[in-house]
Amino acid sequence: MSQGPVGSGMPCAVTGSGVEESPDGALYDFEQLSAVADAVLYEGYLLYPYRRSSAKNRVRWQFGVLFPRDWVESEGPVVPGVSGSADSWYQRTECLLRIRRPDACVRVRVRYLQVQCKQVQETGRDGGHITVESLRTDDGTVHLTFDEAVPREADVTVCLDDLLQREHTVPVGAAGGVDIEPLPGHAGRLVRRREELRASTTVIAERLSPALCRLRVHTSNTGSVPDPRTPRDEALRSALIATHCLVGGEGVEFVSLIDPPADLAAHAGRCRNEFTFPVLGGGSPAAPARSRGPQGGGTGHMMLSSPIILPDHPQVAPESPGDLHDAAEIDEILTLRTMLLTDEEKREARATDLRAAEILDRVETMPPEVFRRLHGAVRSLTPVAPATAAPVAASERPAWWQEGADDGFSPSTDTVLVDGVALGGGSRVRLRPRGRGADAQDMFLAGRTAEVAGVFHDVDGSVHLAVTLDDDPASELHTWYGRFHYFRPDELEPLEPEPLGPARSPGRAAVTGSRRTPEAATTDSETPSSGGR
């Protein structure tokens, strides 16, 4: 990995585990952030189905991309924004830190990916090499030409007093190079090329009060391209990709910009962050000493400034066995899809990139108990109201955002009256979606029969019934996953009337007349989107 120079700063004590610790016990072990930081670094690196031929793997690297300025501004200046999904030539991070010691220091680690062009070259009859798109060696292995990426990082540590007096700028670029890997049987070779990256990071601090200052970290691509009209795929070779930074220090405490202490809210609002946003990192948000300030705001000893918007104290789910390069997807679903790839698709994925091969190996050898953990987890539980609890009158029920608002409701046993028939879980109905205001998907379901899975009460007081279609071959699977179509009671026609009697639950609602009047048909404010949830 390329390392930038380290600025002047006080030495830090290093424990046996590599955790850097100040005498006052403030830890800023960046390893605590490694899982989340790596997820940011490789987000979108290669997407399912992990094949070169997949259309979504032909337009890559969308987050935190810092191009040479002459390329990205060839048609005008970049427009600053917090999200790092827009191309830029720089990133600007500003955050607040409290000064806890007079000899405090700040440490910044800048991380990014450098594009590495992998070319497959076949050995010719004359002994020379010809670049080809693919090559199969005698052992049956397929090799594909494809762009890879190499992780880079650079650290700078500076005394806070120095930062308050002047800015510190250090190079954080990476050298170019060529690596050659011969293929078995003299069939050819793999040539990996990297262009030189020129970049710098500037760190400066501004004192806001005796014990408070604003820290600014500015990283920019200082390189250039031969021609501003260069295609994006080629310009990426001179770009920093998935750029982000970790910020820590000794004798300092960082303030959340999402949930700042009340007395620092105004200062937090004046921090300018462009193409990235800093959040508290490390530790658990449930740890009072690490996450809550004296006036209720979030504080911590590290920050992660990411081009992807994150909450304070982001965590990778402990159930996740490894990176799938698509944090917006559900691990279980993505793992199942990867398992279902054909042998030919898997061969192409393995030939595309080593990280794709690692994903396939992990999925194919995943133990059943690990796979079961991917189905879901309960992070916290709340007490269940006793079954004998007295029903709560609607007029006395707490507001929907208050504790106890759901007491007395049970989707699986509640009923709703439609034309004098109590509909609830297990009832069979015919779908009669409204002529106006209904989803387009609902209109296609008109006249089909379904089974009610549950009765749900919305926060605005309206009622909807979840149903599964009788002729849907995947209805059992949808029920298992909890994916339903939702309809208002007056959009359903009972097929198996039940005698009108006492409600089975205090969550009962009464609706008469499943066929709407013309006046009612013009109202669509209470209809939810109901397609295939």
Give a short synopsis of this structure.
By secondary structure, the protein is α+β, with helices and mostly antiparallel strands. The protein is built from 13 helices and 26 strands.
Structure explained in plain terms:
With about 525 residues, the protein is α+β, with helices and mostly antiparallel strands. α8 (about 345-350) crosses α9 (about 355-365). Strands 4, 5, 8, 10, 11, 14, 16 and 18 form an eight-stranded antiparallel beta sheet that branches. The chain has a six-stranded antiparallel beta sheet with strand order 9-12-13-3-15-17. About 15% of the residues lie in helices and about 30% in strands. The protein has helices spanning about 35-40, 70, 160-165, 230-235, 265-270, 290, 330-340, 345-350, 355-365, 370-375, 440-445, 475-480, 520, and strands spanning about 15, 20, 90-100, 105-125, 130, 135, 140-145, 145-160, 170, 175-180, 190-195, 200-210, 210-220, 240-250, 250-255, 275-280, 300, 305, 415-420, 420-425, 430, 450-455, 465-470, 485, 490-495, 510. The protein is globular. The longest helix has 11 residues, at about 355-365. A hairpin with a 2-residue loop joins β19 and β20 (about 420-425).
